[in-house]
# Entry
Amino acid sequence: MNEKHKKLLLSIFLDALGYVSFVIPVVGEFTDVVWAPFSGWLMMKLYKGKPGKIAGVVSVIEEALPGFDIIPTFTIMWFYTYVFNKK
# Structure
């Protein structure tokens, strides 16, 4: 398995981790307080450069807002990086 596919699996896993707040009502929303900034940091580490920084900010906002956790931000960024923005 190459690096690109490992990053896809990790992105899917991190998106699934962000869904925890849906699994545990009330308590889950409090986990977003910790997860939101951590997910932004992970996004910037996983996807370098300006796109990674922008995605990191989007990830923090998406995780911090109630009800928006359903958006698979990490996976979308993977598709942007490896499918839509091929150089």
Notes: Helices lie at 3-18, 20-23, 27-46, 49-64, 73-84. The two ends are 21 Å apart (CA to CA).
